[in-house]
Design brief:
The protein is α/β, with parallel strands linked by helices. It has 18 helices and 30 strands.
């Protein structure tokens, strides 16, 4: 298999170019003796497994002593799997360095904000900026790449494992040096630029040289500089990106045909930047059962999957939940019969171009000893294995039809920006985060049956009719031409309170709010305030587009229309704000910009959505679907795949369906009724009329 074409820049519309759909499972042969593993490959093949991911936590096996490499178990396993038609996705084992390394080089251990070094006995305990750890990581990666470079059964690699999933920050001496080097590069080796960007005149923080700067630590003794914290998170992302780049360079040199991925998405990482550009595709570990409320689970899963696609496009699920996920502090619900299969189809519907189940066999030892796999602790296959086998049979038919398709959306919310999320986290004012607001908006559109996704403001907005940017105080003026074009060509853009109030270093802008967005919004902010006790001094908004008033929580802004094309969209009632403008609507070209001077709460979103849907001329992708049935469409050049997922607690029937074939059953759909059982799923390949 040749290496996929180098992908274009990250976009929610990017496809993976894998060339086929891989159906697989995570496997840990190092945990089991030969007798227990005896029938694994045979059982995997019988379940339709075509790819196995392994090796990410096996460094102590692969290099039991320094420079003494042992790959026999991997060789044996790869060969055994290959005899049953199963390929291998290997992983670099750098998430869990062995004890001999941390004993010889204790300086590689991460240091927390309190100055406490981390300990051996867990994972992610080594610092990616430490020169010794980077050298040992390159060495094991080089040894593996050299050993497997000509093995035709190894098709790709996963870098490390879930960067920053457990521990993102480090304050060790190596990080102090690396952080200063990062700042020198960022500010062109001119500390005055840094002082200006960080506003270090405040609290006498001014630096005479980069060597004086340390990583920021909270409450030592009080609040750190927000701009300092933002650059520190950017540094963390850069450090991981460089650490991964060491590995991708080695792997690509060894075998350019290998495709490379990583199983994100962890904290403090910019997946729209060089980290993902260094890969062929991004991976995502999908754990829907982490949401304890079954009624909210499918929606929360849709949000997380759309976020994964929003970072860089279609992806591979490197760990789809196959049982009750568990660690010492929690044990998720056990998926009911049919639920694991349906969760897999939800992931595929929303952009997964390949899918690996979380693990083959439930472990008996360690921190995840109750994290369910396809086989139980006693090594016996039961209903989860049978369900995985059903999924394997169905994907053999569905997989080829998915190639090069993208997910159709015509409504979107903004997310997937590291700086925006970081700026809010370090100066939240006790307000819900932009992503929390985005999730509220996404949930409302999703539950009503609209084709909603997640898109960054710099990304391709073609075909989107309604786009909401909720409370992005940090705003890059470079995004404005894309947004203006979107509106002028007919789009409806909705901006939430505080948008544009801060610049790229998380400092307040000098311009009247909403800063660089003033011209686009056609309005300015005259006054703003936090609502700390909204029940004591209630405020409501009265919208021109709907009857009744909506309570405001968290935040209020009074606005002033700034152009003749800007109309008052809502007014305030309560206290001194009564009669003042709470929301505006600016007509621009064929579209409009709506600025809302309060926080997006569920109540506000429910009140506004009917008007926004009408304003943007949104249509449900399949209006005949009953409530509780999720409908998602993947498409390419008129080739349409309709996913119907029943999230109701009872069977339902869709009164009409596309004319085509249900690829999961092979049954022809003539446009009539389609029954869906509890946790049911159907994927209809629509037969489109051929132009004359």
């Amino acid at each position: 298999m040749s290496r996929p074409i180098q992908p274009p820049p990250p976009s929610h519309r990017r496809t993976t170019n894998l060339g086929r759909f891989w159906y697989g499972v995570a496997y840990y042969p190092e945990l089991w003796d030969a007798e227990t593993r005896k029938h694994d490959a045979e059982r995997m093949a019988a379940a339709g497994i075509t790819l196995v991911r392994m090796g990410e936590f096996a460094w102590s096996l692969l290099e039991p002593a320094e420079n003494h490499f042992y790959f026999a178990l991997l060789d044996e396993t790869v060969a055994t799997l290959a005899r049953h038609g199963i390929a291998t996705l290997l992983a670099t084992p750098t998430a869990a360095p062995p004890r001999w390394l941390t004993q010889k080089h204790p300086e590689v251990l991460r240091v927390d904000a309190a100055g406490q070094p981390q300990c051996h006995g867990s994972r992610q305990h080594a610092c990616p900026s430490n020169p010794a750890f980077r050298e040992y990581s390159r060495r094991i990666t080089q040894a593996l790449a050299r050993h497997f470079h000509g093995n035709p059964h190894v098709v790709g690699w996963q870098t490390d494992n879930a960067f920053n999933a457990d521990f993102a920050e480090c304050h060790c001496p190596a990080c102090q040096t690396a952080f200063r080097d990062f700042l020198r590069r960022t500010y062109k080796n001119q500390v005055r630029r840094l002082n200006q960007a960080w506003g270090t005149a405040f609290w006498a923080q001014t630096y005479a040289g980069f060597e004086e700067i340390e990583t920021p630590r909270p409450n030592r003794p009080t609040h750190p500089n927000p701009a300092h914290q933002l650059d520190y998170v950017r540094f963390i992302s850069d450090a991981i990106t460089q650490f991964q780049h060491d590995q991708t360079q080695i792997l690509r040199r060894a075998n350019p045909a290998w495709w490379l991925t990583h199983n994100g998405t962890g904290r403090h990482l910019d997946y729209r930047g060089d980290f993902t550009r260094d890969l062929d595709l991004l991976g995502f570990a999908n754990q829907p059962m982490a949401e304890p409320d079954p009624a909210r689970r499918h929606q929360r899963q849709a949000w997380r999957l759309d976020q994964a696609r929003g970072w860089s496009g279609n992806f591979i699920v490197t760990g789809q939940q196959a049982g009750p996920g568990g660690q010492p502090h929690c044990l998720h619900d056990n998926p009911e019969p049919g639920e694991m299969r349906q969760m897999a189809y939800a992931a595929i519907a929303r952009g997964a171009d390949s899918l690996l189940l979380a693990r083959w066999r439930t472990c008996r030892v360690g921190a995840e000893k109750l994290h369910g796999g396809l086989l139980d602790h006693d090594n016996l296959p039961r209903r989860r294995y049978a369900e995985a086998a059903q999924l394997g049979r169905e994907l053999a038919t569905l997989g080829p039809a998915l190639q090069d398709t993208t997910v159709f959306i015509d409504a979107a919310v903004a997310s997937c920006d590291l700086a925006v999320a970081t700026a809010h986290a370090h100066y939240s004012l006790g307000l819900p985060s932009p992503d929390e607001a985005a999730a509220t908006l996404h949930a409302a559109l999703h539950e009503l049956g609209y084709a909603v996704g997640v898109v960054h403001p710099a990304d391709d907005l073609t075909g989107i009719k309604l786009y909401v940017i909720p409370h992005w105080n940090l705003f890059d003026p470079a995004w404005l031409p894309n947004l203006r074009h979107f509106v002028e060509t007919g789009g409806t853009l909705v901006l939430g309170a505080r948008c544009g109030s801060h610049g790229l270093h998380a400092n307040v802008v000098a311009e009247t709010f909403p800063g660089c967005l003033r011209e686009l919004a056609g309005a300015t902010v005259e006054e703003y305030g936090r609502q700390n006790a909204p029940q004591a001094r209630p405020l409501t908004l009265a919208f021109n587009c709907c009857e009744g008033a909506v309570a405001s929580e968290w935040w209020h802004e009074t606005l002033r229309p700034a152009t003749p094309e800007t109309e008052i969209h809502a007014t305030w009632k309560g206290q001194h704000l009564t009669g003042q403008t709470a929301a505006t609507r600016h007509r621009l070209g064929k579209g409009c910009v709506i600025y809302v001077g309060t926080w997006f709460t569920p109540e506000l979103v429910r009140a506004m959505l009917p008007h926004l849907v009408l304003q943007a001329s949104l249509q449900k992708p399949w209006p005949a679907a009953p409530a509780g049935v999720e409908v998602v469409r993947r498409q390419k050049d008129g080739h349409r795949l309709w996913f119907f997922l029943n999230h109701n607690d009872a069977a339902v029937a869709i009164p009409s369906t596309p004319v085509g074939t249900d690829l999961l059953t092979g049954r022809h759909t003539d446009g009539g009724e389609l029954p869906l059982g509890r946790h049911g799923a159907a994927v209809v390949h629509e037969e489109l009329a051929t132009p004359a």
